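User: Design a sequence. Structure:
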């Protein structure tokens, strides 16, 4: 991977993730890491899209691994259930990473705003 590439971490491999990863990988300077608790889903996304690496990870049970992944990427796209976004956001804040989610701002997310 060249230093010009952007590394994007996509958390979740549900229905929305396919079009998101396909769109992101249209740019030849983007590499996507697709994270899922279901190996088959992560592998499916990686096999259908260039420059996509599958990672098997249960983000609720492996906070240390999630922390490391977030640190290694430029941008995090969370397609996880909204209740998990505050934990992901806190790690993004810790590592000064941009975060994109598909949910409305919950009170827990709003509380992180100033950070």
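Assistant: Done.
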């Amino acid at each position: 991977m060249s230093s010009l590439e952007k590394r994007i971490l996509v958390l979740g491999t549900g229905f929305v993730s396919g079009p998101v990863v396909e769109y992101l990988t249209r740019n030849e300077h983007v590499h996507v890491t697709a994270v899922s608790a279901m190996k088959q889903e992560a592998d499916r996304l990686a096999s259908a899209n260039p420059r996509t690496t599958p990672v098997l990870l249960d983000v609720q049970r492996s906070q240390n691994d999630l922390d490391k992944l977030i640190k290694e990427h430029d941008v995090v796209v969370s397609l996880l259930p909204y209740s998990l976004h505050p934990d992901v956001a806190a790690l993004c804040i810790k590592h000064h990473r941009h975060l994109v989610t598909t949910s409305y701002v919950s009170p827990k997310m709003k509380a992180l705003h100033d950070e």
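The radius of gyration is 13 Å. The mean pLDDT is 92.
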